[in-house]
């Protein structure tokens, strides 16, 4: 017994230290506890209500248990009390109270569940987005505007975004913690629908929330909420003719090696991520920093990360569909420089 006590005393500080360490894990922009839109606010409200009820029940149950243990503990010379039938008043009380608590939780839950299931796919005032999940990237199509993009979902602040999700391969799950709950993307004809909106301009992190392969943890995307004027300028810029590298030799290589899968503007195919305006995007391949901001200097510049991705995409995101292309170092440098400078500059 003493050995066990000594072992417990040694493990207790270690467990306490681990609890403190793990409590600091996570990111603010990947938390459902920091809602930034009406859908997330409604879901957060249900979470708070259910947790409050559970805490109340736990406190009452433990308080009653402690009271009974102390008041009716066994004492010396105690005799077995007279056994009587249960107290009808108490039985009614502990039957009615749970029913009341279930109603308090159930009514707003049903209300919000049906409210959040509203279909905006036919609403002309909502921005329609078809989300297609791939291993391991996201494709966003705007049927109202006739454009496709990838890895960064551009939306106008304050407007309802109607989303229809599907998958090109296995089951994934579309999730933007700060804006809305997750919804599965299924292969085949099964299309799931949801809607959300953002209250403020900003960038929100999205993730795949369904284990889908070796690079599941790297299947990130960004939602960029901008004012309506900036959104309209972005739509117009996405429709402009594509710009090829100024160097004819690099342009020829880019057309032969890259535009057979990708696209810039009206040039190339859109079988894989659209590269139009890639220099403006927050990330390369959804995970590598795509900015020259000094605070991210330890994570590489836009040019460095593009070069890293083109040189060996499998080293960055194992199992993805992009092969290692046979290019010379000079060609990789030229394409990386061209893409890092390919910006739409829609902000004013």
UniProtKB/TrEMBL annotation:
CDD domains: CuRO_CcO_Caa3_II. One of its GO terms (molecular function) is oxidoreductase activity. It is found in: Cell membrane; Membrane. The chain crosses the membrane at residues 51-70, 91-110. Its cofactor is Cu cation. Residues 24-120 form the Cytochrome oxidase subunit II transmembrane region profile domain. Its main location: membrane. Belongs to the cytochrome c oxidase subunit 2 family. Subunits I and II form the functional core of the enzyme complex. Electrons originating in cytochrome c are transferred via heme a and Cu(A) to the binuclear center formed by heme a3 and Cu(B). This is Cytochrome c oxidase subunit 2. It comes from Paenibacillus albicereus. The gene is coxB.
